[in-house]
Amino acid sequence: MTQQDGDDLGVWSEFGTAAGMTMRGLAGGGDAPGEPHVGLGDRPDLDGLPPVSGLGDAPSSLHDSSLGEAVREVGERLHATAPPKGYHNRVDADGDGHLDKATYRGDGHGGAEIVVDLDNDGRADFIGHDTDLDNRVDFADYDKDHDGFFEKRMYDDSGDGILDRTEWTHDS
């Protein structure tokens, strides 16, 4: 390799000098060092619509929300806890005479929920509520047509473990 101007990089040394001079020129010109431009530049306006500045404030709590009772109920279920220690119950959610496979969880209020997926689609079709942990379902919600919405609620008014009163939602 031949030496040029006292360095051993050959023609590549001139490339580095040219690149440095170009950066100085782009950043402010002259011999004073400037801030080089970084990034890809400004974002182009592709749709001609005004920019979105924000989506509004999130509610401070679920109870302050104007979305109603449904949002509060979902929030309570999201905050459900592990089932009470040692809690185990058995249910025949579909009434076929056989006990159904159930999952247990705390309800966040000292009781337990018994959750059953009757048609194995990954969504609960029955949620039994044992509010006092006596291993008797106090009331239960049913998704009878397996569409993801609970149309029916049954109550054990006498406390004997048999659900004896039914209420249907207005949409059923």
Rg on CA atoms, Å: 34 Å
Secondary structure tally: strands: 6
Low-confidence stretches: 62-67
Cα end-to-end separation: 88 Å
Spatially, the strands of the biggest sheet line up as 1-2-3-4-5-6
Secondary-structure topology with pairs:
Blueprint: H1 11-27, H2 69-78, E1 103-106, E2 112-116, E3 126-130, E4 139-142, E5 152-155, E6 165-168
Antiparallel strand pairs: 1-2, 2-3, 3-4, 4-5, 5-6
How would you summarize this macromolecular structure in one to three sentences?
The chain is an alpha+beta fold and 172 residues long.
Tell me what you see in this structure.
With 172 residues, the protein is α+β, with helices and mostly antiparallel strands. It folds into 2 domains: 1-42, no CATH class; 81-168, no CATH class. The protein contains 2 helices and 6 strands, in the order ααββββββ. The chain has helices at 11-27, 69-78; strands at residues 103-106, 112-116, 126-130, 139-142, 152-155, 165-168. It has a 6-stranded antiparallel beta sheet with strand order 1-2-3-4-5-6, with no helix packed on it. It is elongated and about 70 Å long. Mean pLDDT is 74; it is low at 62-67.
List keywords for this structure.
single chain; 172 residues; alpha+beta; 2 domains; 6-stranded antiparallel β-sheet; 2 helices; 6 strands
